[in-house]
Design goal:
Order of helices and strands: HHH
Radius of gyration: 20 Å
Helix content: over 70%
Structural class: mainly alpha
Strand content: under 5%
Number of helices: 3
Distance between the termini: 15 Å
Shape: rod-shaped
Length: 100
């Protein structure tokens, strides 16, 4: 018998929040990948580096791709948290049935 490291409410809450994080960050990654202009303010643009490159758009385009990959990495981490939370929820439900 495995011992859960969090209770049923905590694991359910973490599963719900992780599921929302997966959806939100996957969509953000897609929007950064297609270089949505509304997200331009969220790019980590270094003005000096951009000015040294003669304000070339490839610098901004590379930043869009970098941020998109970062969003997809965070999506994977939220996916791992979602799986872990669902396992903990299942263990908690199984232990509550066996104790009664």
């Amino acid at each position: 018998m495995t011992v859960p490291c969090c209770g049923p409410k905590c694991s359910a809450f973490c599963a719900i929040i992780s599921f929302w994080g997966i959806i939100m960050l996957a969509l953000l990654g897609i929007f950064f990948y297609i270089e949505a202009p509304a997200l331009a303010e969220d790019l980590p643009i270094d003005e000096d580096v951009w000015a040294a490159g003669n304000y070339n758009y490839t610098y901004v385009s590379d930043l869009y791709k970098q941020v998109a990959v970062n969003c997809w990495i965070a999506t994977g981490l939220y996916g791992a948290t979602f799986i872990f939370s669902c396992i903990m929820l299942k263990i908690n439900l199984r232990s509550s049935y066996s104790s009664s």
